[in-house]
Design brief:
- This protein is mainly β.
- 13% of the residues lie in helices and 59% in strands.
- The protein is built from two helices and eight strands, in the order ααββββββββ.
- An eight-stranded antiparallel β-barrel has the order 1-2-3-4-5-6-7-8.
Length: 180
């Protein structure tokens, strides 16, 4: 009895990966089909004398049809005004995030993604910080698999400052970008 139960469980366990290996209309290079490249510019509303602007490059991988993860490289120029003195701070940051497709563009006119990301400054930047952001991204339906797709986003960002004399920043951010 134990041997037959063991054989049945073993056969069931082996059947699952075999089923997962079946092709269902995918191309010959499935890794490339799941990669995504994004270039984007993000700007935030002025708060506590700071107006952050970032230029980002995201490299992502679609894990499931609705869920993806991405690495993020960010360069920022932050305009700062304190006591009628205007200046700016430059920083570079690396991080990553997760995205979830709320509305799939293959079935709807517009695709909508919810993205959460975290970045942390690297090197010796003018302003050291850790940032947390949540964005709602909207993009148009594109029938081609690997197409150039522009998108717009609106979100909230919290920047936790690690530089003395500069306070934390919270605010609404707007994003414009291109997905390849």
């Amino acid at each position: 009895m134990k041997k037959s139960l063991f054989l049945i469980m073993g056969a069931a366990i082996l059947a699952m990966p075999m089923k997962a290996q079946e092709e269902s209309g995918v191309s010959k290079d499935p890794v490339f089909d799941h990669l995504m490249f994004e270039l984007e510019a993000t700007s935030g509303l002025k708060n506590k004398g700071m107006s952050p602007t970032t230029f980002n490059f995201n490299l992502g991988y679609q894990i499931t049809p609705r869920f993806y993860a991405f690495a993020k490289a960010e360069g920022s120029i932050n305009l700062y005004k304190n006591d009628d003195v205007k200046t700016y701070f430059k920083s570079q940051a690396l991080g990553g995030g997760l995205g979830f497709k709320l509305y799939n563009p293959k079935t709807n006119f517009l695709g909508t993604d919810l993205r959460l990301s975290v970045t942390n400054t690297i090197g010796s930047p003018d302003w050291k910080y850790t940032s947390y952001s949540a964005d709602l991204i909207i993009y148009s339906n594109n029938k081609k698999q690997r197409a150039f797709t522009p998108y717009l986003g609106l979100g909230f960002k919290h920047i936790n400052s690690h530089t003395s004399g500069i306070s934390n920043w919270n605010g609404i951010i707007g994003t414009i970008g291109f997905r390849f």
